[in-house]
Amino acid sequence: MRSHEIDYQIKGHDVQLVEIELDPNETVIAEAGAMLYMDEGINYTARMGDGSTPNEGLFGKLLKGAGRLITGESLFVTHFTNQGYGKKRVAFSAPYPGTIIPLHLEKLGFRVTVQRDAFLCAALGTKISVTFSKRLGSGLFGGEGFILQKLEGDGLAFVHAGGTVIEKELNGESLFVDTGCLVGFTDGIDYNISQAGGLRSMVFGGEGLFLAHLRGTGKVWLQSMPISKLIAAIAPAGRNSGKETGGLLGNLLQD
Length: 255
Known about the structure:
Blueprint: E1 7-11, E2 17-22, E3 27-30, E4 35-38, E5 42-47, H1 58-70, E6 77-82, E7 88-93, E8 98-104, E9 111-115, E10 119-123, E11 127-132, H2 136-141, E12 147-152, E13 156-162, E14 165-178, E15 182-186, E16 189-195, H3 199-204, E17 210-223, H4 227-234, H5 247-254
Antiparallel strand pairs: 1-2, 2-7, 3-6, 3-10, 4-7, 5-6, 8-13, 9-12, 9-15, 10-13, 11-12, 14-17, 15-17, 16-17
């Protein structure tokens, strides 16, 4: 089915939200718990499935639901439909500081692969499915990059990235990225995991044991602060825990 044609506006800076404008009978789908506010006249329903295949049977919906559970998301997708008169608005907020990326799927080859927790919302008609990295190395060491989501359709979809977003255009080139900093990529990009240098670099370099290796022709989206790094940075025992007190001297004074 063709996706519903929705209008949108992204608001905010550090913690963004996307406000979707719906004409009567238009629908947007979203992750459970992402809704921030909505106008009177919008009805929302939790459904098992994204609604991209209206005649899909219960077994197919169960398979898709199981895939969503594997990614750590809810079994259900929430559908928001304008059942009133005139234009209505519903807004969805990012789960942590970062940037919301609008993806015009038709302009991006009708399909984009993203990290498993990146999807925020999309126009009805967008197909959301789970995919796994094809290579054993990616599965064993890829971290966040092992289980991925595919967004397919001809409408608008929105994903969330932590920190600042960097968009790269590859033309037969290669790019090495921290596995957690990859947000998504278009068809034509080959994804694999590579060893991070020699033994000394792997142990003492501070960049992890493996890097994501992206190669091909297409677009790549990166994030400067994935949620795993954010948690590590602000944790009580994290590497930044002593900065406020002046490092080693501050810790000695506290003792």
